């Protein structure tokens, strides 16, 4: 790949682009919902980051060439980036919806007052 990159750079008379290798990270999570949500979120964030870099390059090409097709491609890229941002937020919402809900409501069937009758009378008078 490096040789192709250098040859193309020489032919086109531009500086070669540095190619970084993708590092995959294996995360063991017992909850498949959590695992899938994290995996999807990480992938979408990487796509958004790469899309932002590509968008900058596309806008530069469109500006320099002033070609209508270049502007059309840039507009489609903007639309795709906006959709990916919505997808990222949708993942968060779905993840929240799938998590078990913790009830904060407490039902008291029987209440027992611990104290003297005098304390009870004072408390009842204070509530009135």
What's the alpha carbon Rg, rounded to whole Å? 30 Å
Q: Structural class given helices, strands, pairing?
A: mainly alpha
Q: Estimate percent helicity.
A: 55-70%
Secondary-structure element pattern, one letter each: HHHH
**Looking at CATH, which topology of the domain at 28-100 would you report?**
Helix Hairpins
According to DSSP, the number of beta strands is: 0
- Rough shape? elongated
As a percent range, the share of strand residues is under 5%
Report the span from N to C terminus. 83 Å
The CATH C-level class name of the domain at 28-100: Mainly Alpha
Helical segment count: 4
Q: Would you tell me the overall average pLDDT?
A: 83
Instruction: Report the CATH architecture of the domain at 28-100.
Output: Orthogonal Bundle
Largest sheet: none
Low-confidence runs (pLDDT<50, min 5 residues)?
none
């Amino acid at each position: 790949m490096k040789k192709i990159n250098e040859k193309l750079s020489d032919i086109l008379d531009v500086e070669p682009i540095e190619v970084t290798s993708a590092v995959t990270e294996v995360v063991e999570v017992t909850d498949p919902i959590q695992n899938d949500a994290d995996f999807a979120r990480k992938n979408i964030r990487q796509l958004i980051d790469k899309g932002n870099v590509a968008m900058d390059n596309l806008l530069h090409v469109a500006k320099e060439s002033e070609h209508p097709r270049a502007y059309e491609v840039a507009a489609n890229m903007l639309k795709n980036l906006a959709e990916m941002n919505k997808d990222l937020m949708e993942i968060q919402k779905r993840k929240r919806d799938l998590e078990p809900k913790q009830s904060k409501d407490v039902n008291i069937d029987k209440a027992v007052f611990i104290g003297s009758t005098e304390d009870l009378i004072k408390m009842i008078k204070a509530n009135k």
